[in-house]
């Protein structure tokens, strides 16, 4: 009827989902996809009215608890946080982590949810957290379509689960197609269970349990899921449940028809083997229920669904019509007051004639009328219209744009600042030792803190930040992983969702792209897409900027900034700053990416006496050198380069004020940089990203957001790396990325343009 923009459904998958729901207990977690409506109904975490509210995009969190209208239908989530943004008792809830649309994107998170159970069972120090787990008895249930098992994320997560031996029960809903493409184009042997047969555990080798069952066979499904649950819950062995012979009677979604690509024979088979039809036959033949009794149940079910649909639509439209009515009344008043009454009347009539009006219709009408009334400033109706628009914009921010970051009392922006303390006995150590002592203190302070990644465990990471800590705290707290960036992040997301405090390491920033999709589609928008219903305060640790060559000197920060809104991006210039950020984030409930300087681990730093306690505030730049002629804004490894150039420029008569932004998300929340520009009237932005990358972001923040353009006497300048990745060796670094000489010449030329007599040409 056009009341919803788009529909995607789980028809043909109902009976298997009912069977799965029978073994899903309080404390368990789901990480699934958009076909799981029946399962969510069956566990009592979705009503039919809520289902339709999501279909209509009702922005009331009570109407659509999963996403408050932010996601298209079929995206399910339970509210794991209370009204203050704190975790509820997860062991008393049936938990569903928030769905995303990218197929197989749920798999990395699923691995982490299951891995948490292993930690809760095997680490005695975690037994005290009874609101998070009951001895690790919880299963992580995953669901995925057969075609999506072709995705690399699926294979990576399945392999990791087999290695880790975690209670991960993955159900593959197999209807033989991926939209229009049949299984033989997707999967070797056209069967994921056959393709993965090598994972099957034996008497002497650990692995997966693989179970196949038909999607229309209710009795077989019940038996299969009871067996799978016992293996997962008691033995902590992962299970792959391949549910074959399913159907998809409505096609992929409302935007297409399956009749376009299925043969008449296939369509006839699907009609005969529809799981609801087969369930009806089983109820009549095996349970001995009379057909007319089943007919009555079906009739009542249809009526109940229609009533729920109507209630959802009524609640949705009444909410919207409140605004429509308010603006209509204001426009009626404006018609009486304005000399341009006919134009206002036309706008009002157009608004009230809207079929199935939306908020955008009302806002468009209000703003169109305001343009008409722009010359009649004295009208009360104009003032009323302005008041309505201002309030509506606040309300719409809450509806559509709130909770990108935490709004709780544990927000990273609310962590108390504790300055580092130094004394006469403070040691001078390598930067890596500063980090090692910071991590040591964090692991000792909070049993929920753990770290994992490639080479993090036995050797203490490639730069020794965790040296000796696995031996001290055990391999459940400081853990090696395989080379699998995507699921390292997924592991961290799942652990953080379950109340632990993971630090997930991506060894080099150059390999961060492997993890970028999971970070962007899942973690960065988690708090947003649930409107504060779920959080995963994961810390991602990595290292980047300058060192050697194409894949060990990357600084693609612009890519990160544009992909990861919702995750704080922290860019410390040294390891002491990094330690302060780790301490801050471990006290907060926000996720963060902390990028250490790859060439800073062996540089000497003074060790704070309070290494485990001091914190750094986010969004607060630091002035490294005061000056009066030009402001240079930078971060990370470039701080040392810029400081070297600034000293040389001082000798040439140019006084530079050097500012380390320290964090890019958030960026200078108190607008301190503009105060420097007011003094110098010139600004330069320098970094190691490509031209137009992060330098452009910083320029936009300072010139546009902070209005620094008002105070400039010269054009703003950016200093960036070359457009290509850095070449190998010291010369490759020098001629690819900005050097102290480059910074000197660019800034000197800027000053020469202002005063050529004082600053004669260098060439």
From TrEMBL:
One GO MF term attached to the UniProt entry: oxidoreductase activity, acting on the aldehyde or oxo group of donors, disulfide as acceptor
Cross-referenced Pfam families: E1_dh, Transket_pyr, Transketolase_C
Cofactor(s) it depends on: thiamine diphosphate
CDD domains: TPP_E1_PDC_ADC_BCADC
Superkingdom, taxonomy of origin: Bacteria
Protein keywords: Oxidoreductase, Thiamine pyrophosphate
SUPFAM superfamilies: Thiamin diphosphate-binding fold (THDP-binding), TK C-terminal domain-like
Domain Transketolase-like pyrimidine-binding: residue ranges: 429-603
Keyword presence, Oxidoreductase: yes
Function: E1 component of the 2-oxoglutarate dehydrogenase (OGDH) complex which catalyzes the decarboxylation of 2-oxoglutarate, the first step in the conversion of 2-oxoglutarate to succinyl-CoA and CO(2).
Protein name per UniProt: Transketolase
Protein species of origin: Chryseosolibacter histidini
């Amino acid at each position: 009827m056009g009341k919803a923009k788009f529909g995607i459904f789980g028809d043909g998958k109902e009976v298997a989902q009912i069977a799965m729901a029978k073994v899903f207990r309080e404390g368990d977690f789901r990480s699934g996809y958009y076909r799981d409506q029946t399962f969510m109904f069956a566990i009592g975490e979705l009503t039919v009215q809520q289902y339709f509210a999501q279909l209509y995009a009702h922005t009331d969190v009570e109407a659509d608890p999963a996403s408050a209208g932010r996601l298209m239908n079929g995206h399910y989530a339970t509210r794991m946080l209370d009204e203050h943004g704190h975790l509820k008792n997860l062991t008393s809830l049936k938990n569903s982590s928030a769905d995303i649309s990218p197929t197989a994107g749920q798999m990395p998170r699923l691995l982490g949810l299951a891995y948490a159970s292993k930690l809760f069972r095997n680490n005695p120090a975690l037994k005290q957290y009874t609101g998070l787990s009951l001895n690790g008895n919880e299963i992580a249930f995953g669901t995925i379509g057969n075609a999506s098992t072709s995705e690399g994320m699926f294979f990576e997560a399945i392999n990791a689960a087999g290695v880790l031996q975690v209670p991960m029960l993955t159900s593959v809903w197999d209807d033989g197609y991926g939209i229009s493409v049949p299984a033989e184009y997707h999967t070797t042997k056209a069967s994921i269970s056959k393709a993965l047969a090598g994972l099957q555990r034996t008497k002497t080798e650990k692995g997966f349990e693989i179970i196949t069952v038909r999607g229309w066979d209710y009795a077989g499904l019940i038996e299969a899921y009871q067996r799978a649950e016992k293996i997962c819950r008691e033995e902590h062995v992962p299970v792959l449940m391949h549910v074959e012979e399913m159907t998809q009677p409505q096609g992929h979604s409302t935007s297409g028809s399956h009749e376009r690509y299925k043969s008449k024979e296939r369509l006839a088979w699907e009609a005969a083997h529809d799981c609801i039809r087969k369930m009806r036959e089983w109820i009549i033949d095996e349970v001995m229920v009379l057909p007319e009794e089943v007919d009555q149940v079906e009739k009542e079910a249809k009526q109940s669904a229609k009533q729920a649909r109507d209630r959802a639509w009524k609640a949705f439209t009444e909410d919207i019509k409140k605004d429509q009515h308010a603006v209509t009344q204001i426009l009626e008043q404006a018609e009486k007051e304005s000399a341009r009454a006919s134009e206002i009347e036309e706008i009002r009539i157009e608004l009230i004639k809207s079929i199935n009006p939306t908020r955008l219709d009302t806002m468009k009408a209000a703003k169109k009328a305001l343009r008409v009334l722009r010359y009649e400033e004295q009208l009360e109706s104009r003032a009323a219209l302005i008041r309505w628009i201002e309030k509506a914009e606040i309300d719409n921010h809450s509806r559509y744009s709130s909770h990108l970051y935490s709004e709780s009392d544990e927000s990273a922006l609310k962590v108390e600042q504790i300055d580092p303390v130094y004394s006469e006995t403070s040691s001078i150590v390598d930067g890596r030792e500063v980090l090692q002592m910071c991590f040591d203190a964090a692991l000792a302070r909070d049993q929920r803190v753990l770290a994992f990644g490639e080479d993090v465990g036995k050797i203490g990471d490639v730069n020794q930040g965790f040296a000796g800590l696995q031996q001290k705290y055990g391999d459940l707290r400081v853990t090696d992983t395989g080379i699998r960036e995507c699921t390292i992040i997924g592991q961290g997301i799942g652990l953080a969702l379950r109340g632990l405090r993971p630090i997930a390491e991506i060894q080099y920033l150059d390999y961060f792209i492997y993890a970028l999709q999971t970070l962007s589609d899942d973690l960065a928008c988690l708090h947003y897409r649930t409107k504060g219903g779920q959080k995963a305060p994961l810390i991602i640790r990595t290292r980047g900027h300058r060192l050697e060559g194409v894949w060990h000197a990357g600084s693609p920060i612009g890519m990160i900034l544009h992909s990861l809104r919702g995750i704080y991006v922290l860019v410390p210039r040294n390891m002491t700053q990094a330690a302060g950020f780790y301490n801050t984030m471990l006290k907060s409930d926000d996720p963060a990416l902390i990028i250490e300087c790859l060439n800073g681990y062996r540089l000497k730093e003074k060790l704070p006496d309070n290494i485990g306690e001091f914190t750094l505030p986010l969004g607060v730049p630091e002035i490294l050198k005061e000056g009066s002629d030009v402001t240079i804004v930078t971060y990370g490894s470039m701080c040392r380069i810029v400081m070297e150039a600034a000293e040389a420029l001082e000798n040439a008569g140019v006084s530079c004020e050097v500012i380390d932004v320290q964090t890019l998300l958030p960026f200078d929340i108190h607008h301190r940089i503009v105060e420097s520009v007011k003094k110098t009237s010139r600004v330069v932005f320098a970094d190691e990203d490509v031209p137009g990358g992060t330098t452009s972001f910083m320029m936009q923040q300072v010139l546009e957001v902070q209005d620094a353009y008002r105070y400039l006497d010269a054009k703003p300048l950016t200093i960036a790396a070359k457009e290509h990745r850095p070449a190998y060796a010291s010369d490759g670094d020098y001629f690819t990325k900005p050097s102290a000489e480059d910074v000197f010449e660019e800034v000197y030329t800027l000053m020469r343009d202002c005063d050529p007599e004082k600053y004669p040409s260098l060439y």
